[in-house]
Write a structure and sequence with these properties.
By secondary structure, the protein is an alpha+beta fold. It folds into 4 domains: about 5-95; about 100-190, Beta-Lactamase (2-Layer Sandwich); about 190-265, Orthogonal Bundle (Helix Hairpins), CATH 1.10.287; about 270-435, Histidine kinase-like ATPase, C-terminal domain (Heat Shock Protein 90, 2-Layer Sandwich), CATH 3.30.565.10. The protein has helices spanning about 5-25, 25-55, 65-100, 120-125, 135-140, 145-150, 190-225, 235-265, 275-290, 310-325, 375-380, 385-395, 425-435; strands at about 105-110, 115-120, 160, 170-180, 180-190, 275, 295-300, 305-310, 335-340, 345-350, 400-405, 410-420. The strands form 3 sheets. The chain has a 5-stranded antiparallel sheet, sandwiched between helices. It has a 5-stranded mixed sheet with strand order 7-9-10-12-11. It has a two-stranded antiparallel sheet with strand order 6-8. The structure holds adenosine-5'-diphosphate.
Length: about 425
């Protein structure tokens, strides 16, 4: 019922009462009586509404006029709300059931790190008990890598870590934020694949190691033969030279493979010794003056920031970048190494004005043995492992490798170290300079 028809009804009642009262000579009393009756009727209806509101799940009582409409609208709204809640609850139940039936561990943690929910595999993998819900996850999981990763709050890359104790279990943890700062944890047992990966790395390392000695003997004899060309049949000189060149290439390959497997096997170890990048670059420049005297390598040291890391690994990464810059550019062109602070990070950029790289190759450059063109690398004697080493060293130092290149114009390879991770080294450096 709308407002106008309700008003019309009240007006009709007043007119009717006035007319009826007029017949008996008391129109005002009749109107007053009718209004009083109306008020009593409304009060009763209100009382019914109030009674129903105390327990609105029951169907509403029989009411009339405006109150009847009001009550049925409230009832409809209430019903819709109940249905939406039930739907939501069934969605939550459905999701929880599907998470619960997953073979991977799933856990939900709030923004204070309090465990809100977890399935059975998560309980088993993280070593939780059924009564641990509502406790802080930081007090329940003891592995230091887990605690560091969780506290750092950067979940772009998953974490693989070994659980505390002697079970030798490796877990892979992925965290996603959702809702009001809550976090969804996916935990998977990756012991078998970590084991396989280790077997693969050990195999590569052992084969490389075993091949080194015979290869040294072969290239040693080849070098001896070629040292005495006068007594050699001239027909053999060229083939022997090629054999020596190829065996040297193989030696370089084995050296890179062994180095890569060494730095990989030290994954997880802390690299926190402050490394003075300025003196590292100066040492590299001195070495290049001896090994590449014809090339111009320019140093641009815009900061003297130290980096928490491993000197030998950083040296190998930077020298790989610089040697590539030299290999893939003309003899008279300049190679620049810049160490600077940029956008709050510390950046080491090696740039050249060489042959450059087509954009489609850039995403795959750091794969082992990936070559832009076979002819390029065989001509330069590359092993195809240089950038894989650089990428690995970057990852173990919390840095990012950025590659910018234009075909025919040149390339810039940058190692970007986040300033945050260098706080420790920076403090030590500050102390050292004061002393
Ligand atoms: P390689 O030992 O063959 O140089 P890398 O892993 O160091 O292997 O590099 C992979 C490939 O990336 C190289 O084969 C080369 O084609 C390309 N590349 C690397 N650095 C440069 C550069 N500065 N300029 C042009 N191409 C480059």
């Amino acid at each position: 019922m709308n407002w106008t028809s309700a008003a019309t009804r009240v007006a009709s009642l007043i007119l009717f009462a006035a007319a009826l009262g007029g017949l008996y000579g008391h129109p005002l009393w009749a109107v007053a009586g009718a209004l009083l009756g109306l008020v009593v009727f409304w009060l009763y209806q209100m009382h019914m509404v109030q009674k129903w509101l105390a327990n609105p799940t029951q169907p509403p009582p029989e009411t009339y006029g405006i109150w009847g409409d009001l009550l049925s609208q409230m009832y409809q709204l209430q019903k819709k709300g109940r249905e939406a809640r039930a739907h939501l609850q069934s969605t939550i139940d459905y999701l929880q059931n599907s998470f619960a039936s997953m073979r991977d561990g799933v856990a939900i943690v709030d923004d204070h790190g309090i465990l809100k929910w977890y399935n059975e595999p998560a309980q088993e993998l993280l070593g939780l008990r059924p009564e641990d819900s509502g406790q802080s996850l930081m007090n329940l999981v003891r592995a230091p890598e887990f605690l560091r990763y969780f506290k750092r709050g950067e979940f772009g890359e998953p974490l693989e870590y070994r659980t505390a104790g002697d079970s030798g279990t490796w877990l892979r943890l992925e965290i996603t934020r959702f809702g009001d700062g809550d976090r969804l944890l996916f935990i998977r047992d990756v012991t078998a694949s970590v084991h396989m990966e280790r077997v693969r790395k050990d195999f590569v390392a052992n084969v490389s190691h075993e091949l080194r000695t015979p290869l040294t003997v072969i290239s040693g004899y080849l070098a001896t033969f070629l040292g005495d060309t006068e007594r050699l049949d001239p027909r053999y000189i060229k083939p022997l030279e090629q054999m020596l060149q190829q065996s040297e290439r193989m030696e370089n390959l084995l050296k890179d493979l062994l180095w890569l497997s060494r730095i990989e096997s030290e994954q997880g170890t802390q690299r926190h010794v402050p490394v003075d990048i300025c003196s590292l670059l100066t040492e590299l420049q001195d070495e290049l003056r001896l090994t590449q005297p014809a090339r111009r390598v320019e140093l641009d040291l815009a900061t003297d920031q130290l980096i928490a890391g491993d000197y030998r690994e950083l040296y190998s990464a930077v020298s790989n970048l610089v040697l590539n810059a030299i290999k893939y550019s003309k003899d008279d062109s300049l190679v620049n190494i810049r160490w600077s602070r940029q956008n709050g990070n510390y950046t080491l950029t090696v740039s050249d004005q060489g042959i450059g790289i087509d954009a489609r190759h850039i995403p795959r450059l750091t794969e082992r043995f990936y070559r832009v063109e076979d002819s390029r690398s065989s001509a330069t004697g590359g092993t195809g492992l240089g950038l894989a080493i650089v990428k690995h060293v970057a990852a173990t130092h919390g840095a990012r490798l950025q590659i910018e290149s234009k075909l025919g114009k040149g390339s810039a390879f940058s190692l970007i170290f986040p300033a945050m991770a260098q706080g420790d080294a920076a403090v030590r450096h500050a102390k050292a300079s004061v002393a």
